[in-house]
Amino acid sequence: MKLKAKILAVAACAIALTVALTGCGGGGNSADNAANFQGNWVLTSGNVDGQEVTPEVMDEAAKLGMSIYMQFNEDGSCVLNVLGSEMQGTWEAKDATTVSFTFEGSTEQAKLEGDELVMSYGDDNMHFKRGDIPTAASETEQGAEQEATPEA
Q1: Predicted local confidence at residue 23, as pLDDT
Q2: 18 in helix, strand or coil?
Q3: Would you indicate the residue range of the signal peptide (predicted)?
Q4: For 85, phi and psi rounded to 5 degrees?
Q5: Integer Cα distance of 146 and 40 in angstroms
Q6: What's residue 113's pLDDT?
Q7: Does the first or last residue of the chain, that is N or C, have fewer Cβ atoms within 10 Å of its Cβ?
Q8: Domain parsing of the chain, residue ranges
């Protein structure tokens, strides 16, 4: 039960941070900078409300089909998926290490730190690593798409 509580806490904070915080705009978007961010970023660890979420906890969550990830698409669109709940948005590279993304009118920023994309607010932070969308998440989405598509 502790594992589920931690995962749900991270998910809730991910949604809250994405929707509630605002960032600064400005700057250009070069193709070279954008390439640094394009692709899938999976939440691997973090620290939210004084509770550490380790890579091991996130690995176990992924095995249960519970994952949190962002997709930055070449066309400037992006997706935040939190435990199967998706939000559509837009993104822009501010420079070689800073990305700005907007969901539901609220803008956030994250920075590249080595191979991680880190979103921070006060003492809270979330660490994403480039990777494939977890299989369980992909299968869940495919099932939802099939249910939504009427048979011919």
Answers
A1: 37
A2: helix
A3: 1-22
A4: -95, 120
A5: 22
A6: 95
A7: C
A8: 2-143
Bridge partner residues of 42 (DSSP): 69, 129
What is the rounded CA–CA span in Å between residue 128 and residue 87?
Answer: 17
pLDDT less than 50: residues of the chain: 1, 3-5, 16-29, 138, 140-146, 152
Give DSSP secondary structure letters for 53-99: E-HHHHHHHHHTT--EEEEE-TTSEEEEEETTEEEEEEEEE-SSSEE
Neighbours of 67 (CB within 10 A): 24
What is the C-alpha separation between 26 and 119, in angstroms, rounded?
18
Residue 142 has a pLDDT of 46
CA distances (Å), 97 to each of 8, 19, 94, 115, 116, in order? 29, 22, 8, 11, 10
Structure tokens at 150: 């009427």
Separation between Cα atoms, residue 107 and residue 101, nearest integer Å: 6
Helix, strand, or coil here: 145? helix
The helix or strand, by DSSP H or E, that contains position 10, with its residue range, turns out to be helix 2-20
